[in-house]
Target: Alcohol dehydrogenase catalytic domain-containing protein
Amino acid sequence: MLQAIMTNPGIIEFREIGKPQPASDEVLIRIKRIGVCGSDIHVYHGLHPYTAYPVVQGHEVGGVVAETGAKVTGFSPGDKVVFMPQVTCGECYPCRHGMVHICDNLQVMGFQTDGAAQEFFSVKAEKVLKLPATMSLDEAALIEPISVAVHSLSRGGNIKGRKMLVLGGGTIGNLVAQVAQASGAEAVLLTDISEYKLNKARECGIRNVVNPEKEDLSLAILKYFGPDKADLIMECVGVQPTITQAIVTARKGSTIVVVGVFGRKPEVDLGLVQDRELSLVGTLMYQKEDYERAIELAASGKLSLDPMVTQRFAFKDYPQAYESIEGSGGDYLKVMIDL
Model:
C-alpha cells in the first residue's frame, strides 16, 4: 500500500509498504479522507514544538472498516468510522484521574507517532467510533476538529445563555462559533481580518462577524453584547495580536480559553490578567465524550459543514495541498485529501 511521509519540513515523499494486519484488539480502517489542520501546517513549516522528522501525518480522518481483529465486537466491514489519535500511558496522574487527553506521556498520531496518511491504518478498537451510515466521509474527517471545539467550549463552563467572543475564523474558530450557537449561546461574535473567512462564517450560519482591522473591536463588543461585554472569550488563532485582543477587551473577572496553537511564543500582559482577575485557561484536544458530542452535532444537522471544505486533492497530490495553502493568502478553510 502507499504511504505519505514528511521526511523534513516541506518535503513529502511516498513509499510502498506492506498492508498492516490488525491485532486481535484492533480495527483495520480503509482511509478515505484526511483533513489538513493548522497543527499539520506548523509541522510543514518546521514550527511544531513537539514533532520530529520523519513523520507520517494524518489525524483528522474518516474511513470505513476493512477488517477487525479476533477479539473486536461492534464493528463490521463497511462501517463508517473515525478514531481518536491519542496514544496514552494509562499510568500517570492525568490518566489515573480521567484526563487521558493530557497524559504526561501523550503522543498524538501524525505528530509524535505515525498517523493515517496511508491507504490502510490499524487502530485499537477502543479508540474507534462508529458513525451513522448517512454521514458523509467529509463530515467524518471533520469530527476531530469538531471535537476540539466541543472540548474547548467545555473548558469555559456552561455555554447556554452566554455571550461569546470567538477570535479567529479559521476551521477551529468557525466550528467553535457553530458549536456554541448549537449549544444555546445567547450571542456569538466571530472576528477575523480575512474577509474570505468572515464570508465563510456567514455562509455557515454565524450571524455576527467583525473585521477588527476595519472596525474597532471594543466598540463592536459593546454593539453586540452591551456594556457587560463577553462572558467568554475563545482565542482560536495562536498569534500575538489575538491573545493581546483577548486580554485587552476582556471584562473584569471573565474567562479566556486559549484554543489556538502558538507556533511562536507570545508576550502576555500578566499585569492585566492579575489586575482584572482574568481566568486564562488552556485546552488540549478532547476526550471520548467530546467525540460523541461532535458526532451527535454533525448528525443532527445543527452544524453547516459542507461550506468548510474549500479545497480537495488526491492522495498522490498531498504535497500540492500544502502548496495550495501556501499560495492561498489565507483564503481557505478545510483542505481535504481523498483516497
